[in-house]
Design goal:
The chain has 498 residues and is mainly α. It is built from 21 helices and four strands. The chain has helices at 2-20, 27-40, 55-67, 72-93, 100-115, 124-144, 150-164, 169-185, 191-214, 218-226, 228-233, 240-246, 252-265, 272-291, 300-317, 322-348, 356-367, 386-393, 405-408, 414-429, 456-465, and strands spanning 377-380, 434-438, 466-472, 490-495. It is globular, with a radius of gyration of 24 Å. The chain starts with a helix and ends with a strand. 47% of the residues are buried. The model has no long low-confidence stretch (mean pLDDT 89). This is Glycosyltransferase RgtA/B/C/D-like domain-containing protein. Keywords: Membrane, Transmembrane, Transmembrane helix. It comes from Terriglobus albidus.
């Protein structure tokens, strides 16, 4: 039966991969691609690009663009490659219990990631989840095989997550501490394991610092760390109760069955591998709660490890008494016959062909100058679609700001005040020929073009120096995730100066 379940899950994943291979670049992926494109054209992060991410966040896109290519197919291939790497790591982690938990959890992780929609491929938290799984696989291999060099891969992967988002940096130190305690309890040498692990931890951190030094943007980076980064983290936060419920919302029925299994299996987690996995589960949930926005992709590190823990317990239940066997089969059956096909069906039905916004905006920009607008166009947007178009047309933006949240949020924070002053200073000095404004304000509104009302000074400048020369609203709703979404609108303002 486990073989049948495995085959069915693999068929679902293959069907999902084929059905979604043509998903376009969208959301954070297109924005990070655009930042990488600006870097290729001489712009320096933090100094010439007002980015609040750590360098690892856009280095992923930069690497994929220069190895696989800059198109949507390359990015989709990268995302599917991540799911395969995550599944292989899960199989390695669960090997003492059997191969099936890795296949079960790896397939469900891929399909749940898929059902989250077209905006999510290659998301930073998904990359972090896969890196953590590889780190665990290397960590366990090092001690199972008594081969310390595996710890270098462990440290490398954990530290790479820290260059994307810093939440998991303490995680590496905690697991090294667990390894030290475990080896000393057994009177076994530990120094080489720690040295190899620490070496891996230092490499990405040194690489990130070297990058900042070479690009001469160290001071600007720490200004962002003190200003824009904490300000962004404070926006659109959800209550703790909401976060805890939504952390497992795609898996709630499955988690209920697992909760029953846990009564008979909790003693199995008292070994050192079980304890370290539960530590990762705690860090994954902590990451989701600390980020506080409740986005589906923020829970990937937690979901990945939670799926693996549940799958291991379902497998263990099959060797127990009659009731525990029934619980194990119930969890396996629900995951195989409900979660997997439902997630596959949802992902395959998203309307990836609907690119009306991009088509309309590209048409208007070509009419207004096309390639001549490079360096003369300004997007007032974040993930509404304007930067997707600039990337597709390979147009350089005039200004350094790629997040309108730092311009149109209430002017109570010093970061917003400073951003507005810098933006106006640049636009006064060299006004762009064309300004594109979307009706989106990331991350929490307001709807429509009301964001302009939050900054009357800029609205007055726009009215005095520009005229409305084009606008567009697609006719069809977007179906790029589980719910239909009204399409974004845009307005293009052309300079009154000759």
């Amino acid at each position: 039966m486990l073989l049948v379940s495995s085959c069915f899950l693999i068929v679902c994943v293959v069907f999902f991969a084929i059905a979604t291979i043509h998903w376009p670049l969208a959301g954070d992926a297109s924005l990070m691609h655009y930042i990488a494109f600006l870097m290729d054209n001489g712009r320096v992060p933090y100094r010439d690009i007002a980015d609040m991410n750590l360098p690892g966040a856009y280095s992923i896109d930069y690497a994929v663009m220069h190895v696989l290519g800059g198109g949507s197919l390359a990015w989709r291939s990268f995302d599917l490659g991540l799911t395969l790497a995550g599944a292989l790591a899960m199989i390695c982690i669960s090997r003492p219990c059997g191969w099936y938990p890795g296949i079960f959890s790896g397939a469900l992780l891929a399909l749940i990631h898929g059902q989250d929609g077209i905006f999510e491929p290659g998301q930073r938290d998904f990359v972090i989840a896969v890196l953590l799984l590889i780190a665990y696989a290397a960590f366990f291999q090092a001690f199972r095989k008594n081969f310390p060099p595996w710890m270098f891969l462990f440290g490398l992967c954990v530290s790479m997550t820290g260059t994307i988002k810093p939440v998991f940096l303490p995680f590496g130190a905690v697991l090294l501490g667990c390894a030290t305690i475990m080896r000393r309890t057994k009177c076994q040498p530990v120094s080489w394991f720690i040295l190899w692990g620490a070496g891996g931890l230092f490499v990405p951190i040194v690489a990130m610092y070297s990058f900042l030094r070479v690009m001469h943007c160290t001071e600007e980076f720490f200004t962002v760390v003190r200003g824009l980064m904490p300000y962004h983290a404070s926006l659109a936060r959800k209550p703790l109760g909401f976060l805890l419920v939504h952390s497992i919302s795609p898996l709630l029925p499955l988690a209920t069955v697992w909760g029953c299994c846990l009564f008979s299996q909790w003693r199995q987690w008292k070994n050192w591998e079980g304890v370290t996995l539960l530590i990762g589960l705690f860090f994954g949930l902590g990451s989701y709660v600390i980020q506080g926005k409740g986005y589906s992709y923020h829970r990937y590190p937690f979901i990945a490890l939670f799926l693996l823990v549940m799958a291991i317990d379902f497998q263990r239940c099959l060797t127990g008494n009659r009731w525990t066997r029934r619980l194990g089969w119930a969890g396996i059956a629900f995951g195989t016959l409900f979660v997997a096909p439902v997630s596959t069906l949802k992902a395959s039905q998203y309307d990836w062909r609907n690119v009306e916004f991009s088509t309309m905006l590209q048409s208007d920009l070509r009419r207004l100058g096309g390639e001549e607008l490079s360096g003369q166009v300004q997007c007032i947007d974040t993930v509404g679609g304007c930067f997707d178009v600039l990337y597709e047309m390979r147009l350089l933006q005039r200004d350094r700001f790629v997040y309108d949240e730092f311009l149109f949020a209430p002017a109570r924070d010093e970061s917003v005040i400073n951003s507005r002053e810098e933006f106006l200073a640049e636009i006064y000095e060299k006004p762009p020929r064309v300004v594109v404004i979307t009706d989106d304000l990331f991350p929490s509104g307001p709807a429509g073009f009301q964001k302009l009302e939050r900054w009357p000074q800029f609205a007055s400048y726009l009215q005095a120096n520009y005229r409305l020369c084009a606008e567009g609203t697609p006719l069809s709703d977007l179906r790029w995730w589980s719910r239909k979404q009204p399409p974004h609108s845009y307005r293009i303002f052309c300079s009154l100066r000759p």
